[in-house]
Amino acid sequence: MTKLILLGGFLGSGKTTFMVKAASLLEQQGMKVSVISNDQGDTLVDTMYSRWEGLDSHEVSGGCFCCRFPDFLDTLKAVIAETGPDVIIAEAVGSCTDLAATVINPLVSFHQDTVEVKAYLSLVDGLRMQKEYLEMDLINPSLPGEVLISHQIRESEVLVLSKSDLLDEAQCGKSLDYLKQLNSRAINFVCSSRTGEGLEALLEASLKGFPLDFTDRVPIDYQVYAEAEAAYGWYNGSWTIESTGTVDPMDVSFPLMESFRNPELGEVAHAKVLLVTPLGGMKVSFVMGHIQADDINVPEGEVKEIRIVLNIRSACSPQVIEKHVESVQAAQKEEGFTIRDYTWNSLVPSPPEPYYS
Ligand SMILES: Nc1nc2c(ncn2[C@@H]2O[C@H](COP(=O)(O)OP(=O)(O)OP(=O)(O)O)[C@@H](O)[C@H]2O)c(=O)[nH]1
Ligand SMILES: [Mg+2]
């Protein structure tokens, strides 16, 4: 039977990067793998990126797995019927929590003939642990954002300290101590999708399966949870820029990524960009001021046009993000580009109403 690994963890914590690296590793070991992305909107960088990486990639859009449980289940069934993978890795929306109760438990209790749930891994961003999480009170959370992140860490039985390549030994040790304080029953892993550190051991353990006993539900106040999610504006858009001459895609990506250091946007939890050109593409992310490229087949040379796919989740209203994108496009026009085929949607996540509550 197809095995399922579900990934949770806050926005930008490294879920997609992990999913893509893990899927490639498992495929190298001879397994057939499919992946499922999830988002509140559509036009998803994550789906396009994983597809571009050669993976059998699917998505549940327009709401999170918990609120769209029937869609998630239908997608699982369709993927299994059409592709018959050994493993499905599914990535939840980063601002989601309570997945153990609303997704894992129902799958294990009512749908064990569809899929064998093996692991629910919650990624904890190693970089955020060094900065933001030290300033928050996750042990006795009171602010909505604290409540959400604290719950994500506390509900999980497997915590994955991500981006370990950016941490030294002392930082890793300190972070693990802190995670233990927050959730003493969880099994902890340290992992880097960039270097591969810890990945194989984690995957091996995941496929064997972790105990999925979530009968002692970790409580969360849904009103506070809704408030935490609604603090973020959500924007997904795409457009094509065309040059009369030629352009190096790097010269487009750099100012675009730097533009997110705009205080009007508030805290940019994650801005991800896919630049698609006839020569290849690249994905670049901005997480809490940290810019990093994930190679696909980075276009080397000059091109005449670039498709830009942009997903932003930031602590401001969607209207502020829309205005920001308009100013980016105005700057691109001033540089001599023609802009066409602009489509976008933006929203504030609506209060979570899980199918299984
Ligand atoms: N250095 C380093 N960077 C990483 C690692 N994993 C992910 N990243 C970077 O972190 C950024 C966000 O990674 P994603 O995988 O897109 O994060 P995500 O959790 O899927 O984000 P959302 O889907 O928006 O919630 C990207 O720039 C990645 O390159 C890692 O192990 N090491
Ligand atoms: Mg992702």
Strands ordered across the widest β-sheet: 3-2-4-1-5-6-7
Q: End-to-end span in angstroms?
A: 27 Å
Tally of helical runs: 12
Uncertain runs with pLDDT below 50, 5 residues or more?
Answer: none
Q: What spatial form do the alpha-carbon principal axes imply?
A: globular
Instruction: Return the CATH topology of the largest domain.
Output: Rossmann fold
Q: Report the CATH C-level class of the largest domain.
A: Alpha Beta
Bound small molecules, deduplicated? guanosine-5'-triphosphate, magnesium ion
Oligomer: single chain
Topology:
Layout: E1 3-9, H1 15-28, E2 33-38, H2 45-52, E3 56-60, H3 69-82, E4 87-91, H4 99-110, E5 116-125, H5 126-130, H6 132-135, H7 144-155, E6 158-162, H8 169-182, E7 187-190, H9 199-208, H10 222-230, E8 233-247, H11 249-258, E9 268-277, E10 280-287, E11 290-295, E12 303-314, H12 318-334, E13 338-347
Parallel strand pairs: 1-4, 1-5, 2-3, 2-4, 5-6, 6-7
Antiparallel strand pairs: 8-12, 8-13, 9-10, 9-12, 10-11
Bound molecules: guanosine-5'-triphosphate (GTP) and magnesium ion (MG).
Residues 9, 11-17, 46, 94, 162-163, 165-166, 192-194, 270, 272, 285, 287, 292, 294 line the site of guanosine-5'-triphosphate.
Could you characterize what this model shows?
- Strands 3-2-4-1-5-6-7 form a 7-stranded parallel sheet, sandwiched between helices.
- Helix content is 36%, strand content 29%.
- It has 357 residues and is an alpha/beta fold.
- It has helices spanning 15-28, 45-52, 69-82, 99-110, 126-130, 132-135, 144-155, 169-182, 199-208, 222-230, 249-258, 318-334, and strands at 3-9, 33-38, 56-60, 87-91, 116-125, 158-162, 187-190, 233-247, 268-277, 280-287, 290-295, 303-314, 338-347.
- The chain has 2 domains: 3-229, Rossmann fold (3-Layer(aba) Sandwich); 232-347, 2-Layer Sandwich (Alpha-Beta Plaits).
- The structure holds guanosine-5'-triphosphate and magnesium ion (MG).
- Guanosine-5'-triphosphate is lined by residues 9, 11-17, 46, 94, 162-163, 165-166, 192-194, 270, 272, 285, 287, 292, 294.
